[in-house]
Amino acid sequence: MIELFQKHIDAEAAGDLDTTMGTMTSDPYVNHVPVMVGGFGYDGVRTFYRDHLVGKFFPPDMEMTPVSRTVGDTQIVEELVIRFTHTTPIDFILPGVAPTGKRVEMAVVVIVGFRDGKITHEHIYWDQASVLVQIGMLDPTGLPVTGVESTRKVLNPALVNSPAS
Question: Is the pLDDT of residue 72 over 50?
Fold first, then answer.
């Protein structure tokens, strides 16, 4: 499963749509949960990947830092930190938002399901409020949200943030 998932990720980054889709079942789905974008069924996922993700997301300064990986019998749960400067449209994270030039650091959890040696689905989660704070679209004043701090705490659990009294 790990090797197949890595092949899938590498193909996405390389812009290789056929190899990306070749890692998936005939009935996959992809859901970027915070913004409800993705695809359902082979044609829907292929269209989503082709138009919005494969070969398109990776700004020149993008970095991915693995945090943890849990491997079960039928799925992998991967936690990572993604850093990039918002210099290109990123429809599956910030749909309809023009590039801001702002630096973004986001903690991401990807749940990948498998069946018969192929990927069945991806559920991708992140804190959208944190991303919006970082690009200047959300003022955190008076709200129970943070910006980059939430991601940095994932990497350094010793950072202290106590609830307001």
Answer: yes
